[in-house]
Amino acid sequence: MNLNLDFLLEPPDFSVRGKLIIEVLAPLSMVSSMPGKYYRSQPEPTDAMLYGMLENALGWHISIKERKDLSNKLKQKFGELEKTGVGFISLLQFHLRFTTRVLPPLLHYDDYWSQHLRGASFVGGSRNYDYRAIPIMNMHAQKAIPPDSNKEKRKIEFNDKAEANKDPNKISTFQEWEAIHLNVVRPYFPQYYVSPTLREYILPQGIYQFVVEASPQTSEMIAGALENPSAPLYLGSNDGWIEANLEVLA
Amino acid sequence: MKKLLENLIHPYPRYGLATALLESKISLENLDEENVAEILARTIENGLENFRLFTNDNPLTTEVLRFQSIKAEELKRNDKLVQAAGLSNQGKYLAPTIVTTDGDAKGTFDNSVHIVELLRKQTSLEKTFDLSRSYAPTTAKINNGKNSQSPPKGTLFEAACSVITTLTKTKPAAWIGQRNTTVIPDLPIDEMKDFVELFERMAISQLDGNLFEAKLPPKSKENEAEKPETVKKKSKKTDAAPKSEYRRPRIFNGNYPFAPSNAAFGAVGLLAAIGRWSQRAGEVAWAQRVLESIAGNEKRPGRPLYVISYDDISQVQFKHHVVGLSISGKLSQMIDSFVRETRLYGDTDGVRPNRYDSNFKTNYELFNLMASRFLQLFNQSAFQDFLAIRAEYSAVIEPLLGEYFMEARKINREIVESARALGQWLNRTAYLVADSEIEETAAERAKKVRRSKAKILVEFESATMSAKTPQDFLHRISTRAGRLLQQDIPAAATRFMDEAIIGENISLTDAQHLLIAYLRLRTAFEKGDVQPTATNKQENQIETVSDDELGINQQ
Fold it and tell me: Most buried residue, A133, A190, B304, B452, by most Cβ within 10 Å?
């Protein structure tokens, strides 16, 4: 698929003003700083989030490596680019700017979000796994007092220590009170597990309005993309669905 | 500089920046690259001066312990004072304003000292810096698609401002559930500065007595004589460590005057305390401005308040009604009354309700939680949850009910007053009937009267809540009350009854809620079975009036 991005190398032109109207269809959670234990939502989307949404509508799903190459070209012409906390570099950032904003009244609340994580906890965290792992997981779920100590623990243990048993046949020939290495069970589990994390959500009771300044071609291109977006539009977390339209003013 | 400020989007470091601007007496416009590092470093060092408290008084000999902070130099010299086992038992408590735990205090201290060094070395503030939970409690190590966890990144500026927030004593804080908890509003930088300034003035005002004191229970000399006999029975317990004689000072309940005595009211209690302080200190206009910036007004909704501790973080959002209730000073009294004077229908033991060792402890905790949510949300479903726990309230709550029905539910004042007359009459009826049923000389008379009254009130409530139409419940209530007391309903109640039946100006649910709420208000008619305690005596408007003085029934 060919995408003509040459117009991005032209000098920026902010002659046309448009009004971007965003209607929120689901609660949003727009987090841009200090994540980890509690994800606090911004009351309004940041510029980078809006650029990302527009690029989504335009269908610019460009991989990290290609994006880096393109942004280097932009950097040579226009200077340093803004990079967000998760490493997203928007290609539109020099040619579009958001000036005035009108924010609706907001309702804030906390809710749990299914955070997908990778790591050594896939055994306990994944709900689905291969049927061949069922017997070993059944034993893993049981706890009892082992013969060599008097503290209750699981009948079989998974860890990544060097002493753990690495024999791949152990998945069917296991016995109780063994320590099995994670790599033995790894092929039978999805590597992403889910952990519910507390996150703040906002429910706008109204619409967001932004004044957008760009060149005539860019504004038309964006208005067209928003009428017929090539991907569902969202802001913040990926279930924050929105409906967006651009009205080109004088 | 401008870019750094623009990127400070999280309210937690923004609070730190506001504190730094206030302590250095500098405005945001005058902040520039030359002075900012020194300002931040100095504010962090001020925070380190209030890290741990200690007392020179001996709890075995005095009854009042006075606490001070350990100087930061001593902490730097002796790191056993920063974090070590057994410090709490020696009365060296971690100050409630430091948002960390005893287990991570060293992390907080060391990171703060390290950041001060970086600031003084003129390191660029835009330099990427790893954020740590020890001073930025909303962060934690995360996977972010990689196989192992890594700390989230911010700028050195963000980290320094977060450290200030974690350490400063100029923020509302309390020791709740064994964790230092603080309340941070989400305001733009100017309004944040206003809040910090107001809080600073409030915290040093000492209008509620000296918060750095702890009063110990009096030592009785008889226990000393009995000790040799009891030692033999308790010999099994000697392996347990002796309980510390030290007690935490009042500041751990809240580092500002008029802090609520129950943690369930944490955020709303802070707003109430601001209002009450402003009344005493004569700063009502200022407090109103700050409260409106947090709770909003009719046109603008409130901004969230973040209740932050090392383990739990949540947010609370208020509506504008809280401002009026708080400024009048009444909200603080109402919260006290909810905590101290509410009596569950089922709790007939004891003279003082809601004792810490009562059998109904969980129910009272649930009640406090529902009351706190009602004060926050102020809508019909929150009120229904509040009413779900059957209890009798003190007459101090009355303005809150009036405000709710007249302002939030938009019911005509005359209807509300008429409902009040009916409800109070029913409450008084129940008391008189209960009083007359039990013999004068019966054992535990007060308890029996309470139980009997509760039974009658429950009958009225059940009749009200189970009715499908207003005619239904009004009919049942008037019949029952008439049979009990052989009297008719007072004339003042007719307006409410008529409007409830017509149903135009008031819905069935509102009518039910109105009646139940008012019939639970304890009237001044009773020989009060709740003795006002020393603290609330000054503010309390309940007066126990004898029958002779009141004399006539209102017919």
Answer: B304
Beta strands in B56-212 (DSSP E): 64-69, 128-130, 153-155, 173-176, 179-185
The tokens 């965003």 sit on which residue? A22
Best CA proximity match to B160, nearest among B118, B210, B222, B99: B118
Which is nearest to B37 in space by CA: B139, B142, B147, B118?
Answer: B118
Q: State whether ipTM is beyond 0.85.
A: no
Helix axes B470-485 and B508-519, enclosed angle (nearest 10): 30
- By C-alpha distance, the chain A residue nearest B7 is A33
Q: Is the pLDDT of residue B351 over 70?
A: no
- Give the gap in angstroms from C-alpha A141 to the nearest C-alpha of chain B: 25
pLDDT in tens, B71-86: 989 888 988 888 888 8
Cβ separation A35–B139 shorter than 8 A = yes
| Most A-contacting residue of B126, B149, B181, B313 (CB-CB within 10 A), to test interface | B313
| Cα end-to-end span (Å), chain B | 73
Min Cα–Cα distance to chain B from A35, Å: 5
Which long-range contacts link B55-62 to residues 24+ away (Cβ below 8 Å)?
A: B55/B91, B55/B214, B55/B246, B59/B91, B59/B216, B59/B245, B59/B246, B59/B247, B60/B245, B62/B216
Q: A180-195: per-residue pLDDT in tens?
A: 898 888 899 988 888 8
A36–B317 C-beta distance less than 8 A: no
Residue of A nearest to B298 (CA): A105
- Identify the closest residue of chain A to B12 by CA–CA distance: A34
Identity of the residue in A37, A42, A108 whose CB atom sits nearest the CB atom of B9: A42
Question: Which residues, in sequence order, are CB contacts of B233 under 8 Å at separation 6+?
Answer: none
Distances (CA, A) of B443 to A107, A133, B446, B449, B482: 55, 69, 9, 11, 29
How far apart CA B20 and CA B9 sit, in angstroms, is 17
Which residues in chain A (8-37) have CB-CB distances under 8 A to chain B? 32-37
